[in-house]
Specification:
The complex is a heterotetramer of chains A (438), B (552), C (253) and D (164). With 438 residues, chain A is an alpha/beta fold. Chain A folds into three domains: 6-98 and 185-200 and 367-434, 3-Layer(bba) Sandwich (FAD/NAD(P)-binding domain); 112-173, no CATH class; 205-363, FAD/NAD(P)-binding domain (3-Layer(bba) Sandwich), CATH 3.50.50.60. Chain A is 25% helix and 24% strand. Chain A is globular, with a radius of gyration of 23 Å. Chain B is an alpha/beta fold. Chain B folds into four domains: 6-135, Rossmann fold; 145-253 and 399-472, FAD/NAD(P)-binding domain (3-Layer(bba) Sandwich), CATH 3.50.50.60; 255-397, FAD/NAD(P)-binding domain; 475-534, Alpha-Beta Plaits (2-Layer Sandwich), CATH 3.30.70. Helices cover 31% and strands 23% of the residues of chain B. In chain B, helix 5 packs antiparallel against helix 15 and helix 8 packs parallel to helix 9. Chain B is globular, with a radius of gyration of 29 Å. The relative contact order of chain B is 0.11. Chain C is α/β, with parallel strands linked by helices. Chain C is built from nine helices and six strands; from the N terminus they run βαβαβαβααααααββ. In chain C, the strands form two sheets. A four-stranded parallel beta sheet of chain C has the order 2-1-3-4, with helices on both faces. Chain C is flat, with a radius of gyration of 21 Å. With 164 residues, chain D is mainly alpha-helical. Chain D has helices at 7-10, 17-21, 28-32, 34-38, 45-53, 57-61, 76-80, 87-101, 106-118, 126-135, 145-154, 157-163; one strand at 3-4. The chains are: A alpha/beta (438), B alpha/beta (552), C alpha/beta (253), D mainly alpha (164). At the A-B interface, strand 4, helix 3, helix 9 and helix 11 of A face helix 2, helix 3, helix 10 and helix 12 of B.
Chain lengths: 438, 552, 253, 164
């Protein structure tokens, strides 16, 4: 069925990807807007996914390619929405596409430029645990599989306004003449009949919980950092090691509700931490069966399909211990081993425990540009800056024709995000068919 | 016959395979296998880079068979077949060898033997690929209507969504009334909506011309396949057959009646479902109310957490508190499950309202005796005694009894508890493995109304994707009859589980491709070995055995 | 060096292959002796495949399907069971029945899969290398296997097995249901007599011989040989080639 | 001994009811409490809060463990508490209840007497006066005894001291 309507999906994580694929298969033209150089979102950063422990990128990768290859989907990477206004039967959306400085259709991802580039930058995708170059591929399995130049750090580009003309080594070495320093940011206007928001989440900065000394102690890390550390394509090639001394940990503590269920930070529950910490503990034990894990929690929340059983398995087969009680404070010994102070509530004992590594299950919070986006779109946010919905209409925003799915409306797991993405596709399709531009 | 040119691509899968299997050596080994003209290993064969390498391989080496040694065909085969197709190679010329799930991951401590096994597997794959045949997919006409089984909130939502997208929907409900469990609820958490607000949708359904309603009706048989399901619906007075393109299962679940727990008597020890009814009738005036969570769930017999009971108990507690603030409500719990933004705030609100939360130890559960409840408290290391006028038990949602029968009609699986089992927990959460069948709501797992609505809409999208096109493609790996060898004994006709084999007007046995699922029963049984199973032919399978025993 | 058996596994796509994948995803370790052929259904496994594998000297063959009642194709695994039972009956005659195994693994039973592979591998290890593949290649056994393979290619046997469930559960052509035990007896008799015939036939293919010679060669009672030779003659598979003294010499056709 | 939830007694905490009710027993208070550490858990702020929530009058107003009087009011627990429970204020109230019940460490009464009589809890000793002289510090003024007494009388302190 040929449809003339087009729909814009903002956010190229698993939710945005699924919504785009469903709409494209329904015959709509989809413009998928992603602010990073590649689509994939948070799921691409994860090592494995609960409760089946399938490798995250393995199940995501085929979807990335499907999205890239689908004739009805146009990917717009490095792009951000500037403004939205309502026209007759559609919206008018201005999108700024940042210059990539690499011709997308020419780059063959050979990596010669990366070799030559002299500038090293902390890699955002790897949670800053590794350096990348100023010209880089966002991540190994990223789609589109083409380079991008980081304008801020590129020697040539950052010195250009000082009147200097230096480096340009990538340009010299590229076999396909794909480097194009003349590229400029471009603003284009789209007229979608409906819009789906899928901007996802970011991680709460645990430095806001002073007693955990996240910024100070190298062996206190966040869940996402841990995911990169244990991932085969991550900064340590999947060798789980401490940041202080590269030693493999034998005893790991996972602290729940870091910034969540906390009135001074995020009042709400981040939904997925109990299960993802369980997964991370299982993975540790799979890497090294001597590793013991301790999960410090308030309430175990594992209501999804198969989750409770997953936790039982973690206890029985993977040396994962669940301790009821939240760690009050962390200190370190002379070897930078974190020492935890807590009450084991099951036995009412005050305890200290020295571990090798602490992983903080840091809260999920809305992505940083959401206020701007919401304002420009004229949609309401809830008190936490998630996109507002009501239980009876879990997919609708407060503005007609704009729908929402995934973790930008509330912290949620992958199955729920995927489900909501399809639901958003159904609603957008329904709306667009009833409000066609004819 | 054109010369065989086999290309082998070995995936390191980061270190998933590469840390155990020496992939470059494996690729070198493959190079020396018969008919292999090209072999290489790469980091992630499924990445865009890896796929480009396959494409280049096909182009530069003129490959006509592609073997990928990587993970499981169950997830990645379509991708690689797609790549072959894109390069003008028949997708059935692709062969998958699993050296991750069934090799590197399961023999981590026996690296040498794992490498030998990987070689054997690649050799078998290469041998098989030499025997592969080009096949075409079949097109099936799609009847552009859908069946929704179950008229609760998920069924109603799915039906409305499909109808509003322009498709005809048959909505079948066992009971007289639509609305399912909504009819039993007093208020809905977390916003205290009156269920009647949701039940407005029932009116919408009744007014929607595209929805053909069958209440008081049951499904008695389902035949057919994607695009062409033939469903027999038994109503009160008549039996009717309809033809639909897709089916959505939205049969919901039921509340466990806790006859074996906590002296349940339906009078002063009741379930939340019964409490809602009393609330509706304004019959709650007890002074001391105790609620017990996880009754019959998260225990040996029933492992799972039923997801919605905490929110439900919290809601009922608050309703009672608001009506009679002096009521003493104690909630005995193990873990409070209120994930997300709205639910957690709700929990905080309930605590604010002086509802007492008392954790109990699953190994020393509360005891009801002589009109008192005694519950052991871990930190006080002592029993706490509670007076009660009313005890409300939070029991889980359990699968419907007739799930089994329906699953057999649909030929779809149930999971161990008896809920319907979706195709993939994460990436295909509302699809069944069988094309054209979908599932939403508590039929799949206990969910809140809000989640049920999202899932229902998701199934509507999935169904619409099929219904919006006039034709649907089915796999070419079906059975085929060699008319020379066939003697017409009809053993195959009787054995085929799908009725896909019939005799034509000339008494010749033939396979109806769209019905055939390619299981191969007929092929393994045919007395005269006259049936061949496409893509799993005898020569293909025997070549794999041969390759395994061949000495190098 | 320790004996490392080579074991072939036929795994159905939906349950046991998925179970094996789950074992992988769960990193459950099991012996690396199994080589898997994926089929869509355990019911696809023609006994001829299993016999082919044994004849080629593989040490064991494992067939795994969905649990009974869980078959993705409704009842394909019941058909697998019928075929397997018949196969086991004949392999028992030549003491090879321990080298095959049929069992069920669901998509959620990674552990069970690993356990089954473990058990079967141990069993095969204790049995030692296949008599076919070992250095003292047992040619007589190979002949017997060849004969069994012929039996399972035989249309009479195949249609009997293929009709088993219809006959025992529903009804035969004459509208009667035969109970399972009775059916088993019929099947056993049919398998045995076809086995003799195959052996006789294969022996004659190698060399024309008298009843006495054949009886000695394949170790079957002379009357049985004679009776089955008659059947072979009726089917046009054997005939008299000449006479040696008083004994007629038979040949294969 | 079987304990009983005393719903009536629980209402004692009305002033603090919101913050008290919010406690979800995570143990952040107790794990970080310096007194709890020193007393090896004999003193445990979480347990006191739990006893308040359950209205366990007996436990709270006798000097049994957990003993609220050991709190040093350092406020660390209040700082750490993710739910904003005002622990030390609640403990003050518990102390008042203890006093009302006549169960409190005698040292506190002695201190109260000292304030009533001498205007300070810790009277200046001769040794201290001499040391101040040596250091050249000004002579400490003693507060007006009558003023303090007036204050204490008007606020009901004296009456309370006499009643216990």
């Amino acid at each position: 069925m040929e449809k003339e309507s087009s729909i814009m999906v903002i956010g190229g994580g698993i939710a945005g990807i699924q919504a785009s694929l469903d709409l494209a298969n329904l015959g709509f033209h989809v413009d998928l807007i992603e602010k990073e150089p590649c689509i994939g979102g948070r799921m691409a950063q994860l090592d494995k996914t609960f409760p089946t422990n399938d490798c995250s990128i393995c199940i995501l990768s085929p979807k990335l390619s499907d999205c890239y290859r689908h004739p009805n989907i146009k990917l717009h990477t490095l792009s951000e929405v500037q403004s939205v206004s309502k026209k007759e039967k559609c919206y008018s959306v201005e999108v700024k596409k940042k210059a990539r400085f690499v011709k997308e259709d020419a780059c063959i991802n050979c990596g010669l430029c990366i070799e030559k580039c002299p500038t090293k930058v902390n890699d955002k995708f790897d949670m800053y645990l590794r350096k990348r170059k100023a010209i880089y591929l966002y991540y190994l399995q990223g789609v589109p599989a083409v380079m991008a130049i980081d304008k801020e750090h590129c020697l040539y580009l950052s010195n250009l306004d000082k009147g200097k003309d230096i480096c340009r080594q990538c340009e010299n070495v590229c076999p396909k003449e794909a480097i194009d320093f003349s590229q400029e940011d471009q603003i284009s206007t789209f007229n979608p009949n409906a819009i789906i928001l899928a901007t996802g989440f970011r991680q709460f900065n645990p430095s806001n919980i002073p007693q955990y000394k996240y910024a100070e102690f190298r062996n206190v890390i966040t869940g996402l950092e841990y995911e990169r550390l244990i991932c085969a394509s991550g900064p340590t090639n999947g060798h789980l090691e401490r940041l202080s001394d590269k030693k493999p940990p034998k005893k790991i503590a996972f602290i729940q509700c870091v910034g969540s269920r906390d009135i001074k930070n995020q009042k709400y529950c981040s939904s997925v931490c109990c299960t993802y910490s369980t997964k991370e503990a299982i993975l540790a034990n799979e890497h090294d069966s001597e590793i013991q894990s301790f999960i410090f929690y308030i309430d175990i929340r594992a209501a999804g399909k198969g989750f409770q059983k997953y936790i039982e398995r973690a206890k029985q087969e993977y040396q994962v211990n669940y301790v009821k009680g939240i760690v009050s404070e962390i200190k370190i010994d002379e070897n930078e081993n974190p020492i935890l102070y807590y009450e084991n509530i099951a036995s009412s004992e005050l305890c200290t425990m020295t571990v090798d590594l602490v992983v903080l299950a840091s809260a999920m919070i809305p992505s940083d540009n959401i206020e701007y986006l919401a304002e420009s779109m004229g949609i309401e946010l809830d008190e936490f800056n998630f996109i507002k919905t009501v239980p009876s209409e879990p997919i609708k925003t407060t503005r007609k024709g704009i729908f929402v799915c995934g973790a930008c409306k509330e912290p949620m797991d992958i199955p729920s995000s995927v489900t909501e993405a399809s639901a958003a596709a159904a609603q957008a399709a329904q709306y667009a068919s009833q409000n066609k531009g004819d | 016959m054109t010369e065989l040119r086999i290309g082998v691509f070995v995936c390191n899968c980061g270190s998933n395979i590469g840390s155990i299997i020496n992939c470059s050596e494996l690729a070198d080994y493959a190079k020396n296998l018969p008919n292999v003209v090209f072999a290489e290993d790469n980091l992630y064969t499924c990445s865009e880079t890896g796929l480009t390498k396959i494409k280049n391989g096909i182009k530069e080496h003129n490959l006509n068979r592609v073997v990928v040694a990587a993970c499981t065909p169950r997830t990645h085969e379509p991708l690689f077949r797609g790549i072959c197709n894109e390069m003008g190679l028949n997708p059935y010329y692709f062969e998958f060898v699993n050296i991750r799930e069934q090799c590197s991951w399961v023999h981590q401590k026996e690296i040498h033997k794992a490498n030998l096994k990987a070689r054997d597997l690649v050799k078998m794959g290469v041998a098989r690929s030499a025997r592969l045949e080009a096949l075409e997919k079949y097109q099936v006409e799609v009847t552009s209507s859908s069946l929704v089984i179950g008229g609760g909130i998920s069924g109603i939502t799915a039906a409305l969504s499909l109808a509003e997208q322009g498709f005809e929907v048959y909505l079948v409900e066992k009971k007289r009334k639509l609305g399912g469990m909504l009819n039993d609820l007093y208020r809905i958490s977390p916003n205290y909506e009156d269920p009647s607000e949701y039940l407005q949708l029932v009116k919408k359904v009744e007014q929607q011309p595209k929805i053909i309603l069958h209440t008081n009706s049951e499904i008695i048989s389902i035949e057919g396949y994607i695009g062409n399901f033939y469903v027999t619906i038994k109503g009160q007075n008549k039996v009717e057959s309809v033809e639909v393109g897709t089916i959505i299962v939205a049969v919901g679940a039921q509340v466990l009646k806790p006859v074996d727990y906590y002296n349940y008597n339906g009078k002063d020890i009741i379930t939340h479902q019964e409490l809602e009814k009393l609330l509706k009738e304004n019959k709650i005036n007890q002074k001391n109310i105790v609620m017990i969570q996880c009754v019959g769930s998260r225990i040996e017999e029933r492992h799972y957490c039923s997801n919605i009971c905490c929110m439900n108990a919290l809601k009922n507690a608050i309703i009672i508190k608001e009506r009679a603030p002096d009521t003493n409500i104690t909630i005995l719990y193990r873990d409070i499950n209120t994930p997300g933004t709205k639910n957690e705030l709700y929990y905080r609100d309930v605590r604010k309202n002086e509802v007492i939360f008392l954790r109990y130890n699953v190994n020393k559960p509360p005891v009801i005796e002589d009109g008192k409840i005694r519950v052991y408290n871990n930190s006080l290391k002592d029993d706490i005694e509670l007076d009660y006028d009313l005890v409300v038990l939070s029991t889980p949602l359990i699968p419907n009894e007739d799930n089994k029968a329906l699953s057999q009609m649909l030929k779809v699986p149930l999971e161990e508890n008896g809920f319907f089992l979706e195709a993939h927990v994460k990436l295909r959460p509302v699809d069944f493995a069988t094309d054209g069948l979908f599932v939403c709501g508590s039929a799949k797992w206990p969910v809140s109304i809000s989640e049920a609505i999202a899932q229902a809409k998701a199934t509507a999208a999935k169904a619409a994707i099929i219904l919006c096109k006039p034709r649907f493609e089915v796999e070419g790996s079906t059975a085929r009859v060699d008319t020379e060898k066939c003697v017409g004994c009809e053993v195959c006709i009787k054995i085929c589980p799908y009725g896909a084999i019939t005799k034509d007007d000339n008494d010749q046995v033939l396979v109806r491709n769209v019905l055939c699922k390619g299981c191969g029963l007929c092929g393994a049984t045919c007395p005269h070995q006259a049936i061949s199973i496409n893509h799993f032919t005898n020569p293909q399978i025997l070549s794999q055995i041969n390759a395994l025993v061949e000495r190098e | 060096m320790e004996f490392e058996p080579k074991i072939l596994g036929f795994l159905c796509n939906w349950c046991s292959y998925a179970g094996a994948d789950l074992a992988g995803v769960s990193r459950i370790q099991y012996p690396p002796n199994l080589r898997v052929i994926r089929v869509m259904c355990s019911g696809r496994v023609d006994p001829v495949f299993v016999l082919d594998a044994l004849m080629k000297g593989l040490d064991g063959v494992l067939v795994l399907g969905c649990h009974l009642g869980d078959c993705h194709y409704i009842d394909g695994n019941y058909e697998a069971e019928s075929k397997y039972r018949a196969l086991e009956m004949l392999l028992e005659n030549i003491n090879l029945n321990d080298r095959i195994n049929l069992d069920w693994v669901s998509a959620s039973e990674g552990m069970r899969f690993a356990d089954l592979v473990d058990e079967f591998t141990e069993k095969i290890k204790s049995l030692g290398p296949s008599p076919i593949s070992s250095s003292t290649k047992d040619l007589k056994l190979l002949d017997e296997l060849q004969a069994i393979k012929r039996v399972f290619s035989n249309s009479r046997i195949r249609s009997l097995i293929g009709r088993e469930r219809k006959i025992t559960l529903l009804e035969n052509t004459y509208g009667e249901t035969i109970d399972f035990e009775k059916f088993n007896k019929i099947l056993k008799d049919a398998l045995d007599s076809e086995f003799y015939r195959s052996q006789i036939y294969l022996s004659l293919l190698k060399k024309s011989a008298s009843v006495k010679d054949i009886s000695q060669e394949i170790n079957i009672d002379k009357t049985l040989v004679f009776k089955n030779l008659l059947m072979l003659r009726q089917r046009g598979l054997a005939d008299v080639a000449g006479v040696d003294g008083l004994d007629p010499i038979y040949k294969a056709l | 001994m079987t304990l009983k939830i005393d719903f009536g007694f629980r209402k004692q905490f009305k002033t603090y009811k919101f913050s008290l009710n919010y406690c979800y027993q995570c143990g952040t208070c107790s794990g970080g409490c310096p007194v709890a550490k020193l007393t090896n858990g004999d003193y445990n702020p979480r347990k006191i809060i739990e006893a308040c929530i359950l209205g366990l009058k007996e436990k709270l107003t006798t000097l049994l463990e957990p003993n609220v009087w050991q709190c040093s009011t350092c406020q660390k627990c209040v700082e750490y508490c993710p739910q904003g429970v005002e622990l030390t204020e609640i403990f003050d109230h518990v102390k008042n209840l203890c006093v009302e019940a006549g169960n409190y460490p005698q040292a506190y009464k002695a201190q109260g007497e000292a304030i009533r009589e001498k205007g300070s809890a810790i009277p200046m000793s001769n040794a201290i006066i001499k040391r101040r002289e040596r250091l050249g510090l000004p002579v400490m003024k003693t507060a007006s005894h009558s003023e303090i007494q007036t204050l204490l009388r008007e606020t009901g302190f004296i009456k309370k001291m006499e009643s216990i």
